Amino acid sequence: MRRKRNLEPRLEACGALLVARGRPCLNLKEAAEHYRALFNYREMFENDNPVELEVGCGNGAFVLEMARRHPDVNFLAVEVCANVVLTAMERIAAEGVRNVRFLNIPAETLPCYIPERSIGRVYLNFSTPLPEKGREKQRLTSPRFLAIYSALLQAGGQIVQKTDSEPFFDYSLEQYRAFGYVVTDVSRDLHHSAYAKENIVTEYEAAFAGKGLPIFRAVATKQN
Asked: CA-CA distance, 142 to 180, in Å (whole number)?
């Protein structure tokens, strides 16, 4: 992706929304295990509302609509690409939304910033499927990442996933169950299901579904 014009000044202008950026150190495993700069949500949001997390927020359409619908919930949105997170932050800033903050970091380093058992839901919207052999560990529903989410989620917390890739969806369901999650609300055609009414349709999702292709959705709940 071509670097956006005036990227750094524009990121700085959104500084109040950007609460973490970059790698704490080059070795992601070392960072995740040893570096800690844990958020104080009361100081960050100036309230004690519950906190939910979107991993891979893209241009921010989903988290913006969630924040509008749920002003009594605080949202953390993670996006590793600075170009992309800038679009999301400028969108939030233009709307004057107060209950969203952004992390421009690799998802592997989430434990560096987010306190354990402090998240009510994790949203995974159209994560890259990475179907290539040998890239399983990089999938956002691999055991490697499920271990991270499990540490961050409260008891009874949920992972809510949407994808347009059926093989990735099937892989994810298998991993959730193997990790001890209870899988519910499974839909293999979201836009023609009981969950369609409450669904937030992003630009990417609308374009894909507009071709008559199904969207897959499921909820995985962490056990006590």
From this structure: 13
Phi/psi for 98 (5° steps) reads -105, -10
- 109, pLDDT greater than 70: yes
Distance CA 105, CA 79 (A): 6
Instruction: Flag whether the pTM goes above 0.90.
Output: yes
The closest alpha carbon to 215, from 171, 175, 170, 163, belongs to 163
**Per-residue burial over 69-95, b = 16 or more CB atoms within 10 Å of its CB, e = otherwise:** eeeebbbbbbbbebebbbbbbbbbeee
Closest CA to 209 of 189, 185, 182, 187: 189
| CATH superfamily for domain 7-221 | Vaccinia Virus protein VP39 (3.40.50.150)
Q: Which pLDDT score, from 0 to 100, does residue 213 have?
A: 92
Q: pLDDT band at 73, cuts 50/70/90?
A: very high
Tokens at 89, concatenated: 């932050």
**189 DSSP assignment:** S
Q: Among candidates 81, 86, 154, which has minimal Cα distance to 122?
A: 154
